[in-house]
Amino acid sequence: MTAYDRPAIDARTLRPRTQMVHGGASRSAFGETSEALFLTQGFVYNSAEVAEKRFLGEDEGFQYSRFGNPTVAMFENRMALLEGAEAARATATGMAAVTASLMGQVKAGDHVVASSALFGSCLYIVQDLLPRFGVETTLVDGFDLAQWQAALRPNTKTAFLESPTNPGLGVLDIAAIAEIVHAVGATLVVDNVFATPLLQKPLELGADCVVYSATKHIDGQGRCLGGVILGSQAFIDTNIHVFLRQTGPAMSPFNAWVLLKGLETLPLRVAQQQANAEKIADFLAGEPKIARVYYPGRKDHPQYELAQKQMTGGSTMVAFDVAGGKPEAFRMANAFEIIKISNNLGDAKSLVTHPATTTHQRLTDAARLEAGIGPGMLRLSVGLEDVEDLLDDLRRGLAAV
Question: Can you tell me the distance from the alpha carbon of 286 to that of 153, in angstroms, rounded to the nearest whole number?
Fold first, then answer.
């Protein structure tokens, strides 16, 4: 057999859609077309001397799939290309990525500032988990730059936000917040899952770290879980690498392979989902049974100008308040036939959820209202169906209200 030994393409010279097909690939001697799936726990060494060097970091080979795996490495390298990051580390889930990105930086006595407009599990990490380990935390109104400034302390280590926010699609000024936290030597971590790597580049706006639930748009077809942390090589080496190696929230090689396949079609899917979302947002805005529509691509969005500045699209997500509150929101959701009720998002299938009773149910009523999550809010993740069928389904739901 003749080994496949053609030189690898320099994916850094390619455009994003080509990078998503070819970037990060590493072929074996068999010359496979699709990325190889390395379902292995460990690796063997040519000699005890090689094993010693590998554990000392003097040999670049793999040691154990909790530390690194060829299939997982291909996914990490492709994500780094897409994000424009120097380095990436994959995790078992998106929440593992969020947890590691924060806990990998802090120790007892440090301080963390975060926007209060966060996904429920992220709020748990900030409000409940970090303080158990002696880390002080402060929640601020993320849209108010003065609150970020006032919350900072000499021991502030990092700041955390998501933009657009879940579920209300509020847009935070990433560049301005980054400048504020950097002034005291702190870092900024951004959860970019609603924007996807295609519609917003937090690192270019000044963030130090970007996290994703790869479960969402990156897989985008409801198949597997995954997360990823991206940043400079120094940030990953200093804060993330050892934390992941020793605590073990490793991504499965099979999941990495599935996510690689998802990345191949990510630009096509996000473009169509966003086009559908724009039409749906405009349709809902004209319906009297809908009290309010939240979509960053519409001029009536409170941060529309900021969204135009830091995003290249309005997202694949639409949130809206159904007049009549929870009972009417439930009636509308229950009447859908195409749109499915699910707390997931970023899927090829359109999915709707009632945040107040699902993703943000652990919050108090006052906290939900402060975050703009009313009893009538529905969050719609727009899929790849024909938009006219989705509009017909929305009309079906509205007729039930």
Answer: 46
Lookup: tokens for 39: 């379902």
pTM value surpassing 0.85:
yes
Which residues, including other chains, have CB under 8 Å from residue 110's CB and lie 6 or more apart?
135, 136, 155, 156, 157
Average pLDDT estimate for 103-126? 96
In angstroms, what CA-CA distances link 270 with 113, 312, 379? 31, 12, 17
Q: Label each residue of 328-352 as H, E or C.
A: HHHHHHHHCCCCEECCCCCCCCCEE
Name residue 368's amino acid.
R
- 67 forms bridges with which residues in the sheet? none
In sequence order, the β-bridge partners of residue 161 are 190
Rounded CA-CA distance 83/266 in Å is 13
Q: What share of the chain is helix, strand, coil (3-state, %, to 5)?
A: 40, 15, 40
Query: Which residue type occupies 313?
Result: G
Residue that has been written with the tokens 């308040």 in this structure: 321
Query: How would residue 368 be classed by pLDDT, with cut points 50, 70 and 90?
Result: confident
Angle at CA of residue 184, ends 181 and 187, nearest 5°: 45
- CA distance from start to end of the chain: 67
361 band by pLDDT with thresholds 50, 70 and 90: confident
Q: Which long-range contacts (C-beta less than 8 Å, at least 24 apart) are formed by 233-240?
A: 233/86, 233/87, 235/87, 235/187, 235/208, 235/209, 236/86, 236/87, 236/88, 236/89, 237/87, 239/101, 239/104, 239/105, 239/209, 240/89, 240/100, 240/101, 240/104
pLDDT at 73: 98
Best CA proximity match to 243, nearest among 96, 77, 143, 64: 96
Q: Which helix (H) or strand (E) holds 161?
A: strand 156-162
Burial class of 301 by CB neighbour count within 10 A (0 to 12, 13 to 18, 19+): buried
